[in-house]
Structures are given as structure tokens and as C-alpha cells.
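To: structure subgroup
Subject: Chain for Friday's discussion

All,

I'm putting the inputs and outputs inline so they're searchable in the archive.
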Amino acid sequence: MQEVLHSISVFFSGPIMVWGVSAVGLIISCGTRFVQVRLLFRSIKTVLFGMRKGGEKGQISSFQAVTAALSGTIGTGNIAGVAIALATGGAGAIFWMWVSAILGMATKFAEITMAVRFRERKDGRFVGGPMYYLTHAIGARTGKLFAWLCIFASFFVGNMVQANTAFCALLEITSFEKQTIMILFLLLSVVTGVVLAGGMGRIVSVTQFLVPVMAAIYLLGCIAVIVLHPVACWRAVCLIFSEAFSFSSVAGGIGGSLFMQAMRVGCSKGIFTNEAGLGSAPIAHAAAECESPAVQGLFGIFEVLFDTIVMCTLTAVVILSSGVPVSSASDGIQITLSAFAQTFGQTARVLLGISVLFFGFAAILSWGGYGDSCVLFLNGGKRARGWYRLAYASAVFVGAVFPVMAVWELADIFNGLMMIPNLLGLVLLLRIIQKESDRLKQTKKELVCLKK
């Protein structure tokens, strides 16, 4: 069974992710005259200085939308996912994570822009996402297909992977028995259900606090390692480039397969961390107060930059500079924990383990909101949404004790399945994306999304 899952996962995380996402990202980049490069600094300025923290009349603010989206991306993928990428694709995989991120910035810009452009009002609040713009671009059946795929993906990509990684981290860093930690995750399932019952408003009220605090703690830890071991960290950076461009990596035979493995793993894990092309984060952004779809799209550029270029790179440098063996992909979280322990000892392992738990919980909440929005799109009433929330909360406990590699394989499969209709829709909507991008010239002084 594991071999079958692996084969399917390789297919979807190979041709679908590497070529599909890269091609669409390049098409959108060219169509928008590389908006991710032209407006990179404006995107950063908008996020850091142009957001209000309070939504009005039941809506969420741009700040809340960003934290909700980032909570779905900044998490175990940045910590355990990077270690798995290094173990299965080598140091060169990190370079391909950067490549996927650069193209992914344009893709995420387009996704968020279209999500706001075609959003609707339901139950007194804005709702939107790929299911809405795919309905416009292709048809209602495609929109419903994406909604179903997102619902299933929420259980694996945003739930079981996060819970499993956090569970393994706690097993590694604490002296508690497995049964005790299982009880903890049973309680976490209950808390997840309570938060989801409050809808997107309650979700963002939690994520807007968790994400900035936990991201700051993790960043400070990574920066401290670099400051204390500058030579080793510089060698780690050089290793990333040397393995990505060495002759042996691009030669035929075994060398060629190593090159393709690094590219496949790097792109797939990069996409897993920043979710560009999946269509998940736009669901959160569609609920935000904003006047211009493209201005809201700028937040997507920043999200990919911060998530992959900054967070994943720092994790990779810490691991590679530590000298910790990275030969086993099944030990993803243990590899990262051991790497930090080389500098900070056992205290760092405990702090990092707690960070993983909170990062994972924030991601679980965000993906629960995405799935709930898809149930609403399918005209699901209170009863249908209630059953979804119950099943989703229960999956937190199930995912915690599920075999680790099986969870990651399923996550890659559903990543690929979600991307197929979403990427097709973005290509068909390219002209509208271009028009919305051009309107940014008319709002050049606008650095804050105002109430619509």
C-alpha cells in the first residue's frame, strides 16, 4: 500500500507540481510583467505599514486575512518539510524551493486577486475562492469539483500532516508516554471543534495572535544560530548552490536522476509550504475588507516571500550547518530538533517542539476554515457544516497517530489534485488578471485595503 501511495504521490508532485505550477507561474509572470519583481517592495510596505487590525460589520481586516493565510502556510512544512526535502532531494532541493517561490509569488497574486474579484456575499459576509472564479471561468461543475477536492485536502494537507508532525515532536522532546500525548491531542481535537464552530471570525481571532508571536520566536532562534556559527552557515549556503548546479547533478544516468529528484522534491515541498497554486489561501483573503482586488493580491507576494524564501531558507541553513545526518525522511521533525539542539541544547528542543505544536494548531484552524467555506459553497446548511466540523476536529487525533510517510504522501496527492482545475482557471482568466494588475497604477498611493 505504501508503494502505491508513493507512486501516485511522485506523479502528482512531479509533472503536476514541477511543470504545471512552474509553467502557469511563468505565464502569469509574463502576463503581468513580473508583478512579483516590480511590486515586491510595495508588497512588503503594504503588509508592514498599511494594514488595519480591525474588521467591521462581521468582515475581517487585511491583517487578519494575512495571519489566517500565513497560519496555513507557516507551520510544520517550514520545519519538518524542509528536513524531509533535504533528506530526499539533497541540499540542492532548497534552490528549487526558491525557484518555485519566485514563480509562486505571481501565481498567488493572481489567485487572491481573482478570489476578491469574483467573491460573493453569503450570510452577511464576503466569501470567495477558486470555487467561485472557476465557476465563472469554466463552469459550475468545475467549481464544485474544486470545492470537494479542497474539503478532502483539508483533512490531509492542513490537518493530519500538522497533527502528525506535532505529535512526533512531542514524543521526541518530552518524557511523557505515548498514551499521555494521545490524550493531549484528543483535547486538541475538542478545542479545534470549538474554534471552528465560531466560524472564520473566531479562527482569525486566534491566528492573528499565534502567527506573529510564534514566527518571531522561531526567526530569532534561526538568526541566533547564524550569528553564533557564521562560517558553518556560509558553507551551508554554498552547499545549496553547489548541489543545485554541480556537473554531477545535471549529467546523465544517476546524476540526472539526482538532479530531477532535487527539483521534484524542492518544488513540491516549496509548494506545500507556500501553497501557491493550491487555491487555499485566497479563500481567507476573499473575506477581507478591500477596495481593489489587485491590492489585496499584493499580500500574496509577501506571503510566499516570507514563508519560503525567508523561513524555509533559515531552517535549511540551520540544519545543514549543524552537521546532523539527514538521511531518513521519516525523521523530519527529529532532524530539525536535533539541529537546533546542537546550538542551544535541550532547552531549544523543548521550545521548538512547543512552536511546532502551535504552528500546527494554527494551520489546522485555517484549513478548517477553508473546508467550511467550501461546504458553504456547495450549499451546505448548518447541519452539513456541523458534520464537517465534527469530522475535521476528529481527524486531528487520527492524524496524530497515523504513519508519518503515508500522511505526507496523501498530502502531496491532494496538493496535485487541487492544482489541476485551479491552474487551468488562472490561465483562462489571464486577461482579467492583467487588467486588475494594471489598475494598481491607479492606486499607487493606496497602501491599505479599505472597506468595500
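Points worth raising on Friday:
Residues 12 and 297 are 27 Å apart (CA to CA).
The first helix runs from residue 2 to 31.

D.
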